[in-house]
Design a protein that fits this description.
Blueprint lengths: L2 E4 L14 E4 L2 E7 L13 H18 L7 E8 L5 H11 L6 E6 L9 E8 L2
C-alpha cells in the first residue's frame, strides 16, 4: 500500500513533527486537532468555540483527503475538563448524523499550547 501525506491550508499547520493526516489505502489517520484558527494560528476562546473550530479543522482535512465528516469511523477526544462533556456532545450532534462513529473521550492534565480539547480522527474512504 502507498502512504500519502494530506495537507491543507484550510486547517492549522502542524505545530510539531507530524503531518495533518496520512492516508494508507482507504484509511486516513488525522492528527489531533486543537481549536486553532488556521488563518491566525490563535486558539479560539473557550471550550465550545475551540470544539467547533476543531470540527472545522477536521472537516477541512477530510475534504483534502477526498472524504467528509460522514466518512469518519472513530474519534479520540482529549479534554482538560470532563465537565465540558455535555457541550462536547452538543458539538458532535451539530456536526454529525447517525449512525455516529465510534468515539473515546478522556480527561487529560494538559494539552499543547493551552488548548482545552483535542480530537484525532480516523476515516475510511471507499
Amino acid at each position: 500500500m502507498t502512504r500519502q501525506t494530506i495537507q491543507t491550508d484550510k486547517a492549522p499547520a502542524a505545530v510539531g513533527t507530524y503531518s495533518q493526516a496520512v492516508k494508507v489505502g482507504n484509511t486516513v489517520y488525522i492528527s489531533g486537532q486543537l481549536g486553532f484558527d488556521p488563518d491566525t494560528m490563535e486558539l479560539r476562546e473557550g471550550f465550545k468555540a475551540q470544539a467547533e473550530q476543531v470540527f472545522e479543522n477536521i472537516k477541512a482535512i477530510c475534504e483534502a483527503a477526498g472524504g467528509s465528516l460522514n466518512d469518519v469511523v472513530k474519534f479520540n477526544v482529549s479534554l482538560t475538563d470532563l465537565s465540558d462533556f455535555a457541550v462536547l456532545n452538543e458539538v458532535f450532534v451539530a456536526n454529525l448524523s447517525e449512525p455516529y462513529p465510534a468515539r473515546a473521550a478522556v480527561q487529560v492534565a494538559a494539552l499543547p499550547k493551552g488548548g482545552v480539547v483535542e480530537i484525532e480522527s480516523i476515516l475510511y474512504i471507499e
